[in-house]
Amino acid sequence: MLGVVLAGGESSRMGTDKGLIRLETKTWAQIALDKLAVFQIPVVISVNAKQHAEYQAQFRVEQLLKDNEGLAIRGPLAGLLSVHRRFPKQDLFVLACDMLLMENSMMEKLVAAYKSSQEDVYLFTNHGEPEPLCAIYTARALADTLDRYHSSKLTKHSIKFMLSHLAVSSIPLQPGQEKYFRNFNSPGELSGL
């Protein structure tokens, strides 16, 4: 399994690259990387082409994986499929860099589900809706999605559409657990961190 920090978003509402914002002494991308590294797996940071140089100033080049420009896809799915193309045999444990409140105990539940069944994707659901940015995607699921893309059957370039074609192991969130999946998108949301 390979850990993937998704940091390749536009961050337009935040006004600055979210992965490089600091919380105390660490960048948000480093915080997410550390959370994944607890599981004793290698971790890469998925970035877009515009971000690569700035991230190289903060992280080792081998930790960074730039979105594949040959894919006409944007957003988190671009990051997922780009990492899959580089590491086609690896299952991917994904965490968005702006999920600062995510707890290891929640991530452990995903790993336990992954180890105990043979689904394509492991994620939490919030009132029946998937939480796809802290999830485990198998290499098999990503290969299927990439095949759909190449054969023009991936008619919507979204993770939610991708999930509709895969076997998903979903863990319903319990009351009070929604906070762990909060992502921070604008400066006004940062108070209280």
UniProtKB/TrEMBL annotation:
Keywords: Cytoplasm, GTP-binding, Magnesium, Metal-binding, Molybdenum cofactor biosynthesis, Nucleotide-binding, Nucleotidyltransferase, Transferase. GO terms for biological process: Mo-molybdopterin cofactor biosynthetic process. The keyword Cytoplasm applies. It comes from the Bacteria. Pfam families: NTP_transf_3. SUPFAM superfamilies: Nucleotide-diphospho-sugar transferases (SSF53448). GO terms for molecular function: GTP binding; metal ion binding; nucleotidyltransferase activity. Residues 3-151 form the MobA-like NTP transferase domain. CDD domains: MobA (cd02503). The keyword Transit peptide does not apply. InterPro entries: MobA-like_NTP_Trfase (IPR025877), Molybde_CF_guanTrfase (IPR013482), Nucleotide-diphossugar_trans (IPR029044). This is Molybdenum cofactor guanylyltransferase. It comes from Paraflavitalea soli.
